[in-house]
Amino acid sequence: xxxxxxxxxxxxxxxxxxxxxxxxxxxxxxxxxxxxxxxxxxxxxxxxxxxxxxxxxxxxxxxxxxxxxxxxxxxxxxxxxxxxxxxxxxxxxxxxxxxxxxxxxxxxxxxxxxxxxxxxxxxxxxxxxxxxxxxxxxxxxxxxxxxxxxxxxxxxxxxxxxxxxxxxxxxxxxxxxxxxxxxxxxxxxxxxxxxxxxxxxxxxxxxxxxxxxxxxxxxxxxxxxxxxxxxxxxxxxxxxxxxxxxxxxxxxxxxxxxxxxxxxxxxxxxxxxxxxxxxxxxxxxxxxxxxxxxxxxxxxxxxxxxxxxxxxxxxxxxxxxxxxxxxxxxxxxxxxxxxxxxxxxxxxxxxxxxxxxxxxxxxxxxxxxxxxxxxxxxxxxxxxxxxxxxxxxxxxxxxxxxxxxxxxxxxxxxxxxxxxxxxxxxxxxxxxxxxxxxxxxxxxxxxxxxxxxxxxxxxxxxxxxxxxxxxxxxxxxxxxxxxxxxxxxxxxxxx
Length: 495
Fold this sequence. Notes:
Blueprint: E1 2-9, H1 38-47, E2 54-56, E3 60-64, H2 68-77, E4 98-101, H3 107-118, E5 126-131, E6 135-136, H4 139-153, E7 158-163, E8 173-178, E9 187-193, H5 198-207, E10 210-220, H6 221-231, H7 233-243, E11 247-249, E12 254-256, H8 259-262, H9 270-273, E13 285-290, E14 294-295, H10 300-306, E15 315-317, E16 320-323, E17 329-332, E18 337-340, E19 345-349, E20 354-358, H11 365-374, E21 385-388, E22 391-399, E23 402-409, E24 417-419, E25 423-431, E26 434-438, E27 441-445, E28 450-453, E29 459-462, E30 469-477, E31 486-489
Parallel strand pairs: 1-2, 1-3, 1-5, 3-4, 4-12, 7-13, 15-17, 16-18, 17-19
Antiparallel strand pairs: 5-10, 6-14, 7-10, 8-9, 8-10, 9-13, 11-12, 19-20, 21-22, 22-23, 23-30, 24-31, 25-28, 25-30, 26-27, 26-29
Helix pairs in contact: 3-6, 3-7, 6-7
């Protein structure tokens, strides 16, 4: 039986999908197709790999500190059943599902963390490495290609999946593979080319030898370590140094590499560090074709392309009314959005920002994000609705010395025990039952009941019920920033 360890790379910011994708809520956590997020789709697709010849472990998720509870919550939403106990990959103290990067160092160090974790107990599983921000239209065909890739990788080769190139896309990398397919349908890789110009891309398609590099790799954990030792030993040694001083949070299945050592790791992608160096080396690298309707949804025109168009070629989401409109994507998140007499546009509406762009300029949305960052605008980093480990809050109104929030606390969750130096708070329960700590007093509030938290008083909000708790919070004071929080006790390790 072949041991297989899925690895989901859950980093990246998706700046080309602003204003829906933001630093605090990047595209992998968005629902852009179907009714689950791209991250959740990645988990589900890998679960489909189960086969009598494959021993499939729970996925390792490589993400960062900021998104750890968002990833954990979305995985829990799937009500995922354990395929194999986590402890099968090693001792109990290393049974973590989430490897948390203290800072971004690109994908090569991320994969190295996964390989070190997978080999922790002396095993050498095959890693299936996939980004968390892609969409696949034909999942049965995808599963079949992955099963072939696992069989091929068991013969000590690196396998990369190459998506069928349907048009001369300049935003993707390309893989050249020649000759007849060998065992398990794998072709020998000749070379990689990163984001060619349009003329080159057309030439590649004409030869029939090139596929898109979709960033999905299948290889033994030990083979990745061997290749990294050969081509980039500096990355391997620096990552090992950080890994050797890791900390483990058993409650949440988090592993944290040492942050001081991690920042010394060179930032490099899997492709540049290893894959592009493998052809004509002692590390065998092969490609298995992937004709499954693959897209990395890297821009809004890609979202339009994979959507379900109406008779005029429009793809709409949310409350949308159109007339005399064609070949346009309209994404309404909060309000009614209507279009009249427009064509080939991208229109995306959120609670605090609206994007209108020509489809042909979808790749340039990142320039708006860069401008917002220079202006230090919060719309670049967070939505009006902000997710927290315990639930979310939505800042629905604000003005001089006041702010109004709608707050939702998940069943069984609670906020930290905290105080504010510069503001007081009024809480009104609109749904569920709240346990409120207000100084020395602990009280229960039901719907339509309220309380007042004076400035400088320790307080906490908790939901011990089985349904979500919602409250309206009215803040008043001289300063209302989120950094005016002094935490004394926190269930999520933030104090």
